[in-house]
Amino acid sequence: MTDVAEIKGHRRTYVGAMPGKVIQSLKKVQTENPLILIDEVDKLGRGYQGDPASALLELLDPEQNSFFLDHYLDVPVDLSRVLFICTANTTDTIPGPLIDRMEIIQVSGYISEEKEAIAQNYLIPQARSSSGLEDGQILRKAAFKVVSQTQTNDDEAEAEEDEKKEETKEEEAKPSPPPVTISSSNLKDFVSHPPFVSDRLYETTPSGVVMGLAWTSMGGTTLYVETGVAEGRGLLKEERGEGGMTTTGQLGDVMKESTVIAYTFAKSFLSSKDPTNDFLDKAKIHLHVPEGATPKDGPL
């Protein structure tokens, strides 16, 4: 949304002017205390038609929404009894003043079992109906699982719905005989290469690598922490420089503090076990968390 008029309406001097969506909704439900859902507020845009975020601020701010002014009506309207629910995939792009007027409720994405149930009960029947295929089991449960784990990695089911439509269209385009059942083995003939792969797991982690647990909007995942010696390995004591540690991987403040604590503890532990070993005092350690394009934070 980039047009303020969608929220506040057009002035009556314009041809085809009408009230904004909020006033239209109140007129439709015929009540002063409805529930209004505003979807994907993180996709608000700003252009020559105004700033919709500022108009939403007037809607959501308890100090202002008791006398909301629609341009078409040109009369203050009390919206203080309206319950607004806004949805977003991320809060990073929502303006700060607008976030301050909201109570944030985190909702996790669909797990694989939920995606399979949605596909089985809704997406497959809908795709089969739109493609003209007769009723029947053409997609085995194993293929459901493969699609849900490798073809979708979204908070919503739109991506999976597109995949189901593609499968049924491919099946429809093939000659009628012989009948074909889509299974995990021939799934690649109907859908594209999996855009998402499962996390890499070591059977035995190499030296300097440990596995941690992380949380994303998609649910739980694994996170590796890798360390290496940048300088100091194999050098004589007098040849080594000053020790220290460098971190990379877009770590947040809390995570950086955790690495400093771990580094300090490692030096203290080594000193208590072997006072003559000054390796960590002289060597330069490089700590990296993979997927450097993704910011990370939280305790290690």
TrEMBL record:
Region entry Disordered, spans = 149-187
Q: Which domain of life is it from?
A: Eukaryota
The record's section on PROSITE patterns has: LON_PROTEOLYTIC
Mind listing the GO molecular function terms for this protein?
ATP binding; ATP hydrolysis activity; ATP-dependent peptidase activity; serine-type endopeptidase activity; single-stranded DNA binding
Write down the Pfam families for this protein, in alphabetical order.
Answer: AAA (PF00004), Lon_C (PF05362)
Provide the transmembrane region boundaries: none
Q: Which GO terms describe its biological process?
A: chaperone-mediated protein complex assembly; mitochondrion organization; protein quality control for misfolded or incompletely synthesized proteins
Annotated Lon proteolytic domain ranges read 204-300
Q: Where is the composition biased (Basic and acidic residues)?
A: 165-174
Asked if the Swiss-Prot or TrEMBL record annotates the protein with the keyword Heme, the reply is no
Where is it found, in Gene Ontology cellular component terms? mitochondrial matrix
**What keyword terms does UniProt attach to this protein?**
Hydrolase, Protease
Biased composition range(s): Acidic residues? 153-164
Give the protein's recorded name: Lon proteolytic domain-containing protein
